[in-house]
Amino acid sequence: MADSVKVALLGCGAVGSEVVRLLHEQADDLTARIGAPVELVGIAVRRAGRDRSDLPVKPDLFTTDALGLVKRDDVDVVIEVVGGIEPARTWLVEALRSGKSVITGNKALLAEDGGSLHDAAAEGGADLYYEASVAGAIPLLRPLRESLHGDRITQVTGIVNGTTNFILSAMDATGAGFSEALEEATALGYAEADPTADVEGFDAAAKAAILASLAFHTRVRAADVYREGITEVSAADVASAKAMGCTIKLLCIAGRTADGGVSVRVHPAMIPRTHPLAGVGEAFNAVFVEAEAAGQLMFYGRGAGGAPTASAVLGDLVAVGRNRLAGVRAASESAYADLAVHPMGEVSTRYHVSLDVADRAGVLAAVAGVFARHDVSIATVNQSGRGDEASLVIVTHSAPDSALAATVAELRTLDFVRAVASVLRVEF
Questions:
Q1: CA 143 → CA 78, 147, 211, 251, 319, distances in Å?
Q2: What residues does NADP(+) bind to (predicted)?
Q3: Taking the alpha carbons of 92, 93, 96, 97 in that order, is the dihedral positive or negative?
Q4: How far is CA 50 from the centre of its chain?
Q5: 16 is in an annotated binding site
Q6: Separation of alpha carbons 190 and 192, rounded Å
Q7: Cα 276 to Cα 173: distance, rounded to the nearest angstrom
Q8: Contact 141, 214 (CB under 8 A)
Q9: pTM of the entire predicted model
Q10: How far apart are CA 202 and CA 213, in angstroms?
Q11: 128 annotated to a ligand binding site
């Protein structure tokens, strides 16, 4: 039996404590799978005085000096589940440059500056694994960077935030508004006290950047991702979607463009109830991958939570441990394609536009004229109501998003349009 694989753990919150528990409970299985026992040699925490007697580790393993722990000569692998940009970036760059393998679930750091981590890994000849950064326990990133590495991925579309999916699923099931559904999600523990990162799409945008980077062999950062949250989605929008045979989901969509670039976006969208993603409910995640040879693939499961995320961490640990014992490292970052990332305005999309309008002759023709001036073709129009209840619901054919946005902007200026009640994109 080879020497043990010595692990330093940075962070001992919901995910870190589950990592500790699983390392203890599955110690024999991990030893058999890796070929050597795993030894936890230190745990970095923010507060030293907190009671952690429920964890199966000795108290002297805890330290508040994370950088000191990372620099220790007896550490082989650093697992980081703290999150945030700094000081996590400093810790992980230090570890990688010194030849220590890193396992992280830090989606914000990977999306903001994953290039620095990959460069440090190449410099130190170390492994960088991050399955836990997207979609929790769902085995997704490794298939993208290994199983599908011989194929040409054309599009990745996913529901990658459990909080927003729970909220939208509740709105669809009950007819509730956004605020009521958010309140329920918070009460049940699906939403944080400050849900901004989730409901405004920041969390999903970070994951979209990671997925796009792997799928298209191009460094994509969070700043490259177009982002809209779900705070403006109303009960009326959900009802309109139902009337069309659709549901509303917050999607991350990364795809190749006709000119050889890529587009990456996160926004709420109407999707047909017949699509596989439409049936993904509550706080579950799912990612739909389309590739030229493999065709359509879907990955589904629990996308968050301490235990599911820890499961992904331990999966990476087995891979990293085997590599270290064999004296090899995993394939390095694949960013050779270096494709141009197009802004949202250049992406072709479809719109669902709901207008409150004056009840008088010529309104429909005038509205149609606005769409025509911007070269946007109308697919369907539904005119309903009389008097103060008069409304138009328009669904467009695919057109450049910039043209659609300009159309909506002009509609807002017309005296007979009382309000642009909602604007949603339509996918599939």
A1: 23, 4, 11, 20, 14
A2: 10-17
A3: negative
A4: 32
A5: yes
A6: 7
A7: 17
A8: yes
A9: 0.94
A10: 17
A11: no
Tokens encoding 217: 């062999």
Residue 17 phi, psi dihedral angles, 5° rounding: -65, -35
Residues with Cβ < 8 Å from 253, sequence gap 6 or more? Answer: 155, 156, 157, 208, 263, 264, 265, 266, 269, 427
Q: What is the mean pLDDT of the chain?
A: 95
Per-residue pLDDT of 252-302, as tens digits, reads 999 999 999 999 999 999 999 999 999 999 999 999 999 999 999 999 998
Residue 173: both structure tokens together: 């099931």
The structure tokens listed for 343 are 């802004």
Find out whether 10 is annotated in a ligand binding site. Answer: yes
Query: If you search the block for the tokens 């901004």, which residue do you land on?
Result: 196
Residue 207 bears catalytic tag: yes
**Which ranges constitute the DSSP H helices of 126-217?**
141-142, 162-174, 178-187, 196-199, 202-216
Counting beta carbons within 10 angstroms of the beta carbon of residue 238, is it exposed (0 to 12), middle (13 to 18) or buried (19 or more)?
buried
Average pLDDT score over residue span 32-45: 97
Q: 4 and 36 in contact (C-beta within 8 Å)?
A: yes
Show the DSSP H helices in 224-337 as ranges.
235-243, 306-326
pLDDT at 1 over 70: no
Task: Find where tokens 């020497």 sit.
Answer: 3
Out of 6, 58, 100, 207, pick the active-site residue: 207
